[in-house]
Design brief:
12% helix, alpha+beta, 2 helices, three-stranded antiparallel β-sheet, 7 strands, Sulfite Oxidase, Chain A, domain 2, globular, two-stranded antiparallel sheet
Length: 105
């Protein structure tokens, strides 16, 4: 993810990355967290393209986050200045932080 974000050369106002999925699911992460941590946008596993049930075309892998931050079927990535953006589960009261060491609600 870091290489992809850096290649996009986000404007200085960007502080949030929003992930959109084919099925309408969304989630977001702070830009700085993506740059500082090892988040992966995977398109294959063990050299084999992801099948649809595993998240094709892309799955966001955020190992230090609760599962609702692992977006499958990602088809669009939005660079945003909206640090209050709430994705699908966050809109139902789940923590936008989603750190594994903390309760999700």
């Amino acid at each position: 993810m870091k290489t992809l974000i850096e290649a996009a050369a986000p404007q200085s106002a960007v502080n949030t990355v929003i992930f959109h999925a084919v099925d309408g699911y969304t989630t977001s992460l702070p830009l700085q967290e993506i740059l500082d941590n090892n988040l992966i946008l995977a398109y294959n596993a063990n050299g084999i393209a992801l099948p649809p049930e595993m998240g094709y075309p892309f799955i966001l892998v955020a190992e230090q986050k609760w599962g609702y931050k692992w977006a499958r079927w990602v088809n669009r990535i939005e660079l945003s200045s909206d640090d209050t953006y709430q994705g699908y589960w966050e809109g139902y009261g789940y923590s936008n932080d989603a750190d594994l060491g903390k309760p999700s609600r």
